Amino acid sequence: MKRIEKVADMAKTSRILAAEGKSIGFVPTMGYLHDGHLALVREAGKENDVVIMSIFVNPAQFGPGEDFESYPRDLERDAALAEKAGVDILFHPSPEEMYPEESDIRILPGRQADVLCGASRPGHFDGVLKVLTKLFHLTRPERAYFGQKDAQQLAIIETFVRNYNFPLEIRRVATVREEDGLAKSSRNVRLTPEERKEAPAIYAALKDGARMLRESGDPELVLGMVRNSLGRIPDAEADYAEILDYPSLRPLSAESGEAIIAAAVRFSGARLIDNILVPLEGKTS
């Protein structure tokens, strides 16, 4: 596995690969890798000649008081896991490499960023699109791989790539979970032992909601049940629970073909998100 730290070196390497006719699959991460990230690598390896992974804790997507400084980092551990999983090139630039100067130019994600996590994290998805624009240009992938756990981010990225004619495909990969249902996340290591026992209740509430939505088609009734279930988790506070059309993230309508039931729950040292996508058959009102 080749490791690259400099922006210029990454750009040169991807140009050479493109000239050789090699297809590139790209897996962007913020590191502290887990099985969810490695599932993205496996999917990329099936469809591409070369797999590039980036590890970059992006300061542009963290707001004041958020956990940028305390976000878990272990580059050497991550490099070993990436190489074992089949990554060919690991790009791990510093913030100074990625953002050598201040820029007044902004990329605004629009209406899709005003709900769910975006409602309480203004500017977060601006930062996500900012870094991905740079990473896409530097790595030149034919395909980029994202987990369904970050469903709002995924919907925004799909819209951005489609609307602005980026020459790549976005591949969705299903959420990878622990045996008890908890979605794999780099932030899970910051749960206390007791919180770790309680956290699977998030997915349990979403599963119950999905079943109920398929049976009743009444999103308001379902949403009340999900919120009540999340409110009973002893050491947690729910930031939100919502049911929306996916991937538009608009309110459900009679034309909705798929719904997302999404939640964010805050524990003492970690804020966890999760979601379920529910195919619809015209049952919503």
TrEMBL record:
<feature type="binding site">
    <location>
        <begin position="184"/>
        <end position="187"/>
    </location>
    <ligand>
        <name>ATP</name>
    </ligand>
</feature>
<protein>
    <recommendedName>
        <fullName>Pantothenate synthetase</fullName>
        <ecNumber>6.3.2.1</ecNumber>
    </recommendedName>
</protein>
<comment type="function">
    <text>Catalyzes the condensation of pantoate with beta-alanine in an ATP-dependent reaction via a pantoyl-adenylate intermediate.</text>
</comment>
<comment type="subunit">
    <text>Homodimer.</text>
</comment>
<feature type="active site" description="Proton donor">
    <location>
        <position position="37"/>
    </location>
</feature>
<feature type="binding site">
    <location>
        <begin position="30"/>
        <end position="37"/>
    </location>
    <ligand>
        <name>ATP</name>
    </ligand>
</feature>
<keyword id="KW-0963">Cytoplasm</keyword>
<dbReference type="GO" id="GO:0005524">
    <property type="term" value="F:ATP binding"/>
</dbReference>
<keyword id="KW-0067">ATP-binding</keyword>
<dbReference type="InterPro" id="IPR042176">
    <property type="entry name" value="Pantoate_ligase_C"/>
</dbReference>
<keyword id="KW-0436">Ligase</keyword>
<feature type="binding site">
    <location>
        <position position="176"/>
    </location>
    <ligand>
        <name>ATP</name>
    </ligand>
</feature>
<feature type="binding site">
    <location>
        <position position="61"/>
    </location>
    <ligand>
        <name>beta-alanine</name>
    </ligand>
</feature>
<keyword id="KW-0547">Nucleotide-binding</keyword>
<comment type="pathway">
    <text>Cofactor biosynthesis; (R)-pantothenate biosynthesis; (R)-pantothenate from (R)-pantoate and beta-alanine: step 1/1.</text>
</comment>
<dbReference type="GO" id="GO:0005829">
    <property type="term" value="C:cytosol"/>
</dbReference>
<keyword id="KW-0566">Pantothenate biosynthesis</keyword>
<dbReference type="Pfam" id="PF02569">
    <property type="entry name" value="Pantoate_ligase"/>
</dbReference>
<dbReference type="GO" id="GO:0004592">
    <property type="term" value="F:pantoate-beta-alanine ligase activity"/>
</dbReference>
<dbReference type="InterPro" id="IPR003721">
    <property type="entry name" value="Pantoate_ligase"/>
</dbReference>
<dbReference type="GO" id="GO:0015940">
    <property type="term" value="P:pantothenate biosynthetic process"/>
</dbReference>
<comment type="similarity">
    <text>Belongs to the pantothenate synthetase family.</text>
</comment>
<feature type="binding site">
    <location>
        <position position="61"/>
    </location>
    <ligand>
        <name>(R)-pantoate</name>
    </ligand>
</feature>
<feature type="binding site">
    <location>
        <begin position="147"/>
        <end position="150"/>
    </location>
    <ligand>
        <name>ATP</name>
    </ligand>
</feature>
<feature type="binding site">
    <location>
        <position position="153"/>
    </location>
    <ligand>
        <name>(R)-pantoate</name>
    </ligand>
</feature>
<dbReference type="InterPro" id="IPR014729">
    <property type="entry name" value="Rossmann-like_a/b/a_fold"/>
</dbReference>
